Amino acid sequence: CISSAASDVYKRQILMVQASMDGILLGILFALIAYGMALQWGVMNIINIAQGELVIMGGYIAYFMYLSGIHPAFGIIVSPIIMYCVGWGMYKLVINKVVDKDLFTSILATFGISILAQQLMNFAFGADVVVAQSNFGTTMIFNDMVTIPNAKLFSGAVCVISAIILVVYMRKSKLGRAIRATAQNARAAKILGVDTEKVYAATFGINAALCGIAGACVAITFTLHPYTGLPYTVRSFMIVIIAGLGNLPAVAISGMGLGIFEEWADYLLGTEFRIAAVFSLLVIILVYRRFKLSRKREYLK
Questions:
Q1: Computed from CA positions of residues 250, 252, 258, 261, in that sequence, does the dihedral angle turn out positive or negative?
Q2: Using CA atoms, how far apart are residues 108 and 147, in angstroms rounded to an integer?
Q3: SS3 for 93-122, per residue?
Q4: How far apart are CA 91 and CA 99, in angstroms?
Q5: Residue 29, SS3?
Q6: CA–CA separation, 299 vs 293, rounded Å?
Q7: Where are the beta strands (DSSP E) in the chain?
């Protein structure tokens, strides 16, 4: 009996390790998507409800390459280039009309983009669940008790490298300095000669490019479907709410924390309750933030 109980404890510990490892790698992907949302939110004061759809569009670019006989891993190069152009076009057609409006107007506009993107992807690729096979294999650790798909390791490495490149670019490049200046004070930046219109377009394009990289990683790691963008939007929103705008380390930590939470919820509650747990966590966070803000107002009084 003692041996059986010890064996059960060991198996549970291994499952916890497996869930934590999967959660960390998943959270790194979430963090990249959230950083794109935090960037354009901080610069343009727009909540992009179509964030998840941009991710899925990037994934379908990698999937199309897979169907064309090209390894989907090359999507991490092609997808951000195409998605940057898509983001630029979205800004010129829609976003620039609402960038100076109130936050609710931007939410409605990006919600419309979200619905349109879903229908276009459904028309172009169909409603079937698809995946781009990477054939990267699996890494086994802890005496082959814990398995980590190499596609997840590849995606995690790509997301980390992409985030580092973006941080360096934002600090060293002329456009990066213009974006940071616009985020701090758009009016003052415009007076000093910064073309805020180009900055806004470039910012939305960079956000779309980050979604393209994340989407390519999703294509080779998970599954794609035209209507699965909303969970990625919700996850990004949650991470940004927790971490704040412009705080990359906090975004990374919050992303990994959310990934671990999801995997543990999957393990403890079952796969069917995974997304429900995420949405429940969002409600709890929003209620807590509301309560915290109300307490601050009372102190100010």
A1: negative
A2: 42
A3: HHHHHHCCCCHHHHHHHHHHHHHHHHHHHH
A4: 9
A5: helix
A6: 10
A7: 138-141, 146-149
What letter does residue 91 receive in the DSSP assignment?
Answer: I
Q: What's the distance, Cα to Cα, between the start and end of the chain in Å? A: 63
Residue carrying the six token digits 């919820």: 265
- CA atoms of 255 and 25, how far apart (whole Å): 10
Distance CA 205, CA 239 (A): 21
- Please state, in angstroms and as integers, the Cα–Cα distance from residue 145 to each residue in 12, 91, 153, following that order: 11, 48, 17
The closest of 102, 106, 104, 82 to 94, measured between CA atoms, is 106
Q: How far apart are CA 206 and CA 220, in angstroms?
A: 22
**Cβ distance 274 to 265 under 8 Å?**
yes
Cα 46 from Cα 30, distance rounded (Å): 19
Which pLDDT does position 282 carry in this prediction? 83
Which CA distances in Å does 104 have to 20, 45, 196? 37, 11, 22
Q: Can you state the angle between helices 103-125 and 51-67, rounded to 10 degrees?
A: 20
- Give the model's pLDDT for residue 3: 57
pLDDT tens digit sequence for 229-238: 988 999 998 8
Q: Where is pLDDT greater, at 97 or 15?
A: 97
